[in-house]
Amino acid sequence: MTRKPLAVVTGGAGFIGSHMVDLLVERGFRVHAIDNMVGGRAANLAQHAGSGDVVLETRDIRDIKPEDPSFRGARFVFHFAGIGDIVPSIERPAEYMSANVQGTVAVLEAARQAGVTKFVYAASSSCYGLAATPTREDHPINPLYPYALSKYQGEQAGFHWHKVYGLPVNSVRIFNAYGTRSRTSGAYGAVFGVFLRQKLAGKPFTVVGDGTQRRDFLYVTDVARAFLAAAETDRVGTFWNLGGGNPQSVNRLIELLGGEKTYIPKRPGEPDVTWADIGKIQRELSWAPAVSFEEGVARIVATIDYWREAPLWDPQSIASATETWFKFMKQAGRENA
Predict the structure, then answer these.
(1) Which ranges of the chain would DSSP assign to H, the alpha helix?
(2) CA separation for the pair 75, 228 (Å, rounded)
(3) CATH classification of 185-215+246-274+295-336 is 3.40.50.300, yes or no?
(4) Which one of 34, 139, 186, 214 is most buried, counting C-beta atoms within 10 A?
(5) How far apart are CA 240 and CA 288, in angstroms?
């Protein structure tokens, strides 16, 4: 019997990573999932328990060595691991640079030594800053906060390893991924986690600004399909913007969730609209979104109890959590004016 091909997924017990594992197993791969379990959950991979197809390794990517045995024989490496919360990066920049840049370098070196066929990096659209929309891949780079800088520098490290060492690297710049299994603990941030916990508690949704701001939401299974396409293509040294190409307003999300709302101040440094021009990824990878926003939200609401243990945010606690953000982002805004 021919042995199944091997893929490595860093952050494999996390939000996007666990869905990536699901897709790879469905497509006939064995998977080594590496996760430090700060944001990941073993339950996200429970459906693979006992199958022999998935091995979960609990460790930090910064501890990965160049000759790491978990990478030996791997065809693909999908790199999702790192610190993903945006707001706290303003207070802990060194930690973000360590995890998202040096951690990426450690994974790149292990992939290089293993001779993998393709390394696919999970980049962030935050590298563009307050971008013109729809945003194309040739848009100027302008990271406005440490998270954005760290993710962009991780991407640049990947392309440097491609240029210097010949490691086949592609990158996918994610706009606004959403779906089941997103993080429920930790810092104030992603709108879905905040709103779902508020809905469970019967509290009003805390709407930043007036709720007309739009985000280019893309359901997580569509994200995973795009990453697999980026691995299977013959193209190397390439990056693509990834979104739904159809931005949805926060007010529309509240319509679908149902409930009262209260308003909190708009945050500096955050765009009114995120909108990926997805023409390049559609043309070059024959990829297209498959899950509508309405269907995606319905899938999440069907599993809403998952968010019952998440922090319950209100205007006061959000103001406290974002105080440093307001201070430094106002300053950055003046300097970029």
Answers:
(1) 15-26, 93-97, 103-114, 146-165, 191-201, 220-232, 250-257, 279-285, 293-301, 315-321, 323-336
(2) 12
(3) no
(4) 34
(5) 13
Asked if 28 and 2 count as a contact pair (C-beta separation under 8 A), the reply is no
Which has the closest alpha carbon to 84: 169, 155, 13, 150?
150
Q: Read out DSSP for 59-110?
A: --GGG--TT-GGGTTEEEEEE--S---SGGGGT-HHHHHIIIIIHHHHHHHH
Record the pTM. 0.95
Give me the tens of pLDDT residue by residue for the chain, a chain 337 residues long.
Answer: 688 999 999 999 999 999 999 999 999 999 999 999 999 999 999 999 999 999 999 999 999 999 999 999 999 999 999 999 898 999 999 999 999 999 999 999 999 999 999 999 999 999 999 999 999 999 999 999 999 999 999 999 999 999 999 999 999 999 999 999 998 766 676 789 899 999 999 999 999 999 999 999 999 999 999 999 999 999 999 999 999 999 999 999 999 999 999 999 998 888 899 999 999 999 999 999 999 999 999 999 999 999 898 899 999 999 999 999 899 987 665 455 4
Q: Does residue 134 have a cis peptide bond before it, meaning omega lies within 30 degrees of 0? A: yes
| CB-based burial, 200-225: b 16+ in 10 Å, e otherwise | beebbbbbbeebebbbbbbbbbbbbb
Catalytically active residues, by annotation: 147
Whose structure tokens read 């594992």? 21
Which part of the chain has CATH 3.90.25.10?
A: 185-215+246-274+295-336
Class of domain 6-177+218-242: alpha beta
